[in-house]
User: Which sequence fits this backbone?
């Protein structure tokens, strides 16, 4: 397919959509789907048919608009009254939008009856509330707008334009330069500059290290999309894969063109069946449209994508472990260097990027590096998607510009803490991150600031805790997680996490002395500095950060007589 | 296995397919995969036991999974789990004596906005409470028994 054909599809689809007076968007993300949103979509269709309105209105199943706590959500975009009466030029497709919350299938008829008139007040939720107004959407711009199971809808929203632009107007080096200038950094957590990674893979010589590519795969470089979103409390990547799968394929194809790869893998958790299904559909559609496969867009460039399923191992989010898993083995990491960029999958140079990173690529190519670099802070450009959960009023998926303060996220977008309780801490970065206490609420959210206070950006889980949360228990919970998920390859992580967990349990049971607290700190330091991969290196973070900011909670749990004895002992030692 | 030309990198996909078809991986299945992919048994067993998702034990007729992710945990998933354990007299990771119900725990479903969450045979049930959860499961068990 070339650019003209692509534009023709886009125009066709847009004309068809503009012909409808009302668009009803029903969220079919995992959270809303669990609340029967597909039934709602069917009920809306039935109600429209009954009233003979199915010609002028369209029901569309879309990805997650973000505000999961008010789900199932239905968005109704109606053409302005003036335009219906032909007072506005027909090409100005101006619409008024109403958002309905907690919709049930029974409400469908009422919603349809009110189309074009006053909205149903009972279900309406304002669209100008801070939750929506404070967000900047780049990665999620299509989620909640586009039907994830129809490629035409994605094309109508400007999809695959960036890929064809890159293929026909830019050299691979220009694509890499554009990404480098945009300042995009890896969204998987560590924040490695994406442009640098791409140029390393592009320059890498596939013959430098011995390779063993299986028969049938005609590529000596690979692109991998890391969709193994293992952090508990994080669901950003899932929402993008479910709500806008074509965006990921487009990002991967652009990346493959830039680094010279012809084969790609998307590694998805098997726990996300809906994401897997939608990605499979998307790959099939893109292949049929000639946007994946051989000779994309009439050029000589070929790129194929395969899906690989994870099988429930947290460590497989680590890049070397993930590649071991794609090769069909146990997902255990290996020492770096050589980095995957030089010797990765089957020994070939491999580019491995997070879902969100790749989803940022098409808009950068289309709108330019300058535009992207204009958003965010000096060192952290663009936006970040967070999964806001825990003890906060509005839970869901948000995308905010880098540099926004935690206070804005928790109190403006999140709507504050429910039930009149007090804010205590916010946990970012999942089991690898730390707890940030109230004193840092006004700190800007970017890679450097979060590191400074002992947490990490992470993949974007943000869990709010109120004053009823026991911080020692939180630390113990994360340590239990890391203990179970440690792959067992290196000793500090395998044995260290068990010992830390044992100490935390002892503290929790009120059996610990102050000396145990000291051992705990030493152990955390040891595991952090001697583990092989990111899992072990970051596993002590929740303990270290809670020890730093909520030490009094640990002290309160230490056995009173042991505390006294420990104090006495140190005094004697000092005098002796 | 044929899709990957009987090559070793299709091992995990083969295990997924086998578990989907048989519900769990028994010795016979694992040995068959070992031969078909020409791999050492240690590798196949190693991979099958490494990943949490693969199970070598037969499962009950129905599966209930309790999410123990951070968001669910903070909203009381532990109490939900013990409520189910005591009501159906089954431990997490085990199956009831009448092999009707297997109770499992999971890391995170990514449905944190509905926390605490459980799934019953793939159907997601959000915002559960320790008081009501046992009955919700019992209802579904009897409903399927009638069918």
Assistant:
């Amino acid at each position: 397919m070339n650019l003209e054909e692509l534009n023709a599809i886009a125009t066709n689809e847009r004309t068809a959509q503009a012909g409808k007076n009302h668009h009803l968007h029903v969220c079919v993300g995992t959270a809303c789907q669990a609340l029967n949103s597909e039934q709602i979509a069917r009920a809306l269709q039935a109600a429209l048919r009954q009233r003979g309105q199915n010609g002028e209105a369209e029901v569309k199943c879309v990805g997650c608009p973000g505000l999961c706590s008010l789900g199932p959500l239905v968005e109704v975009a109606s053409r302005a009254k003036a335009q219906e009466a032909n007072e506005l030029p027909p090409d100005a497709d101006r619409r008024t939008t109403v958002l309905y919350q907690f919709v049930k299938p029974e409400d469908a008829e009422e919603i349809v009856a009110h189309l074009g008139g006053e909205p149903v007040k009972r279900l309406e939720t304002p669209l100008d509330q801070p939750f929506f107004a404070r967000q900047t959407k780049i990665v999620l711009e299509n989620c909640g707008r586009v039907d994830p199971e129809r490629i035409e809808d994605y094309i109508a929203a400007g999809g695959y334009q960036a890929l064809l632009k890159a293929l026909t107007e830019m050299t691979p080096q220009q694509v890499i330069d554009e990404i480098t200038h945009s300042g995009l950094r890896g969204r998987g957590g560590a924040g490695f500059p994406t442009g640098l990674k791409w140029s390393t893979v592009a320059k890498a010589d596939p013959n430098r290290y011995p390779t063993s590519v299986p028969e049938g795969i005609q590529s000596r470089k690979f692109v991998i999309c890391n969709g193994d979103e293992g952090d508990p409390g994080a669901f950003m990547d899932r929402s993008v894969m479910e709500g806008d799968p074509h965006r990921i394929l487009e990002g991967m194809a652009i990346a493959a063109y830039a680094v010279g790869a012809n084969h790609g893998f998307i590694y998805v958790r098997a726990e996300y069946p809906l994401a897997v299904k939608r990605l499979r559909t998307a790959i099939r559609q893109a292949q049929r449209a000639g946007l994946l496969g051989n000779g994309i867009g009439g050029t000589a460039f070929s790129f194929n994508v395969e899906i690989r399923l994870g099988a429930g191992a947290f460590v497989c989010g680590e890049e070397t472990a993930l590649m071991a898993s794609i090769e069909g083995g146990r997902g255990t990491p290996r020492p770096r260097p050589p980095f995957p960029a030089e010797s990765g999958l089957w020994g070939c140079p491999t580019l491995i990027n997070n879902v969100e990173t790749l989803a940022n690529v098409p808009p950068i190519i289309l709108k330019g590096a300058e535009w992207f670099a204009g958003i965010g802070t000096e060192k952290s450009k663009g936006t970040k998607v967070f999964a806001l959960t825990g003890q906060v009023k509005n839970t869901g998926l948000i995308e905010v510009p880098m540099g926004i303060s935690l206070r804005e996220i928790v109190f403006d977008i999140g709507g504050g803490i429910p039930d009149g309780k007090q804010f205590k801490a916010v946990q970012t970065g999942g089991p690898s991150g730390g707890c940030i206490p109230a004193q840092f609420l006004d700190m800007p959210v970017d890679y450097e600031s979060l590191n400074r206070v002992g947490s990490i950006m992470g993949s974007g889980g943000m869990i709010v805790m109120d004053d009823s949360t026991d911080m020692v228990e939180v630390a113990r919970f994360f340590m239990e997680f890391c203990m179970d998920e440690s792959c067992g390859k290196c000793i500090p992580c395998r044995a260290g996490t068990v010992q830390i967990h044992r100490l935390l349990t002892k503290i929790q049971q009120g059996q610990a002395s102050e000396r145990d607290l000291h051992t705990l700190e030493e152990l955390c330091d040891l595991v952090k500095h001697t583990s092989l991969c990111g899992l072990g290196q970051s596993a002590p973070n929740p303990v270290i950060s809670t020890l730093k900011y909520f030490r009094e909670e640990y002290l309160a749990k230490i056995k009173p007589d042991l505390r006294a004895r420990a104090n006495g002992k140190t005094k004697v030692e000092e005098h002796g | 296995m044929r899709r990957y030309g009987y090559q070793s990198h299709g091992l995990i996909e083969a295990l997924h397919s086998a578990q989907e078809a048989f519900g769990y991986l028994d010795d016979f299945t694992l040995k068959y995969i070992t031969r078909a992919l020409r791999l050492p048994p240690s590798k196949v067993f190693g991979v099958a036991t490494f990943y949490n998702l693969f199970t070598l034990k037969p499962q009950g007729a129905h599966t209930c999974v309790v999410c123990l992710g951070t968001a669910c945990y903070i909203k009381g998933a532990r109490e939900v789990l013990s409520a189910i354990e005591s009501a159906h007299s089954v431990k997490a990771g085990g199956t009831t004596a009448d092999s009707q119900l297997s109770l499992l725990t999971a890391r995170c479903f990514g449905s944190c906005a509905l926390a605490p969450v459980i799934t019953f045979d793939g159907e997601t049930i959000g915002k559960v409470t320790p008081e009501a959860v046992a009955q919700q499961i019992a209802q579904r068990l009897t409903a399927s028994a009638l069918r």
Q: What stands out?
A: Residues 472-566 of chain A form a domain with the de novo design (two linked rop proteins) fold (CATH 1.20.1440.230).
